[in-house]
Every structure is written in C-alpha cells, then in structure tokens.
C-alpha cells in the first residue's frame, strides 16, 4: 500500500488500552508457563509509553488517556 493512502487508520488510545489489558490478563492467566522474554518486552513497551506521556508534545498527548 502506498504511503499517504486514505486507507490508513489511526490506532486509538482506547485500542492501546484494550491491548494492554488483554496482554496483562493473558500473561497472568498462564502462570504455569512464565515467559521472561514476553515479560521483558511488555515492560519495555510500557516504559516507552510512560516516557512519551512524560515527554508530552503531540505523541505524548496520544498516550494521555492510557492507564498503565
């Protein structure tokens, strides 16, 4: 698909929030098989979101409503 195509859709903060909640639920429900790589990746992703929120600006505003 070409850049700038009108078919591009934005990912909303509510979609990100839903994914975070789903991932946390799935990771906690599978307590018999902890995955340290997945845990580290999720922690890194959440740190990135927190950093962007603190930094502010246009990107930070997109993460404002995401609860970590």
Structural features, described:
The chain has a domain at 13-27 and 36-63. It has three helices and no strands. The protein has helices at 13-29, 36-55, 57-63. The longest helix is centred in the C-terminal third of the chain and has 20 residues, at 36-55. It is globular, with a radius of gyration of 15 Å. The protein starts with 12 loop residues before the first helix and ends in a 5-residue tail after the last helix.
Features:
single chain, 68 residues, mainly alpha
Give the structural class: mainly alpha
Termini separation (Å)?
33 Å
- Largest beta sheet, briefly? none
The share of residues in helices is 55-70%
Average pLDDT for all residues? 86
Give start-end ranges of low-pLDDT stretches: none
Secondary-structure element order, N to C: HHH
The percent range for strand residues is under 5%
Number of separate helices: 3
What form results from the Cα inertia axes? globular
- The strand count comes to 0
Q: Tell me the Rg in angstroms.
A: 15 Å
């Amino acid at each position: 698909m070409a850049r700038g195509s009108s078919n591009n859709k934005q990912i909303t903060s509510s979609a990100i929030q839903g994914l975070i909640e789903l991932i946390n639920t799935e990771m906690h429900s599978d307590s018999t098989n902890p995955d340290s790589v997945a845990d580290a990746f999720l922690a890194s992703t959440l740190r990135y979101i927190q950093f962007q929120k603190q930094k502010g600006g246009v990107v930070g505003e997109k993460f404002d409503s995401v609860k970590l």
